[in-house]
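Archive entry. Fields below.
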Amino acid sequence: MATADGVDVDAQTNYDEAAVKPYTLPDPLRTAEGRGVTSPELWVKVRRPELLRLFETNVYGRTPTPPKPIAVAYEMVSEDREALGGKAVRREVSVRFGDGADAPRMEVLLYLPKDAAEGRRVPAFLGLNFEGNHAVSRDPGVRLSTAWMRADHGPGIVDHKATEAARGTVADRWCAERVVERGYALATVYYGDLDPDFDDGFHNGVHPLFYRPGQTKPAPDQWGAIGAWAWGLSRTLDYLGTVPEIDSAKVAVMGHSRLGKAALWAGAQDTRFALVVSNNSGEGGASLSRRNFGEDVAHLNKSFPHWFCDNYKPYSGREDKLPVDQHELIALIAPRPVLISSAEDDKWADPRGEFLAGQAADPVYRLLGTDGLLLHGWPSPAEDSLSKGTIGYRYRPGKHDVLPSDWEAFLNFADAHLKK
Ligand code: GCU
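PREDICTED_STRUCTURE:
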């Protein structure tokens, strides 16, 4: 099997449940010193900050403090009050980080339900996209991204640049009409605006804004690309907080695959996100690292050396030495609702490992007074699968992708938790 990045991994990858080696997960409710976390207060004051630090130092890298505050400017570049066949208001807003003509920018594409208003604010879904904002809907008014694109991210990319042929190519992955019809705003940003997804030694994207004099790349415990993508999600949330029609206390962050890893990391760090959806996020996302099934840490470090921090590299083949595992990333979202969405044919992402991570995060949700995961065992895949409870789990047939049926589940989960 070749993965999305073209690496042939069959030879070394385990897909046999019987060959999963025994492992012991770190206890989310025990501090590094071995103290039991027996109250919500101990979780909030001691264990949560400790886990965040461990993920920063060993996995995603910490977001550095910039040498000087980064000036952020918003510029509205388009508005269409009759978008999506008259169902939505569309805005495009260019967000500039820092001063000068070369300052990095991220372009926000926003769809609001037509009847959203300052007195009738709506919840929102926010997610990064792989293909550029112009690919997210068939809306001819959306500007074509001029940013660098990976050749493997959809049709219509020529010499790493989007062409008109790329317009609307992933409309079914975003279901913008349906999202606004269900009463939510949809906001999205092309992930490459924050950090183009290739290993360039961190010269492009937002990383250089954070360098100290003389610094040319992040330190071993500082952020990689996933950290920058998560940072961008938080900056987009800042922007959504200025949109009068949006209820910024009800913003769900959603991400697929590597961007699911980024959504989880954003939701873990930034408690302003009201809800998190991880779709097929797999290794380094929702699935357990210690479970040797599908992708492993060595593959992540080898194929995508720019995603995680340099301190993650020594854990290749030594997952049992990690001071954390991914159930604790999910636990960092507690008590906020999190939906873990897996696909049957997405064995590379280890659907069962994603379920087990949700299950192992459950005690933290319970400690904080929610109902956690309301499933006792790994369910069989079903088209309309969605479990109740604050840790939702979805397991559907089919491949690694975001489908319209996934959006129905995301919206149903958000209705249950944000609209009650
Ligand atoms: C690769 C990678 C995964 C990642 C996926 C994606 O398959 O190995 O970790 O989730 O790409 O982002 O599509």
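CURATOR_NOTE: Residues 40-60 form the longest helix (21 residues).
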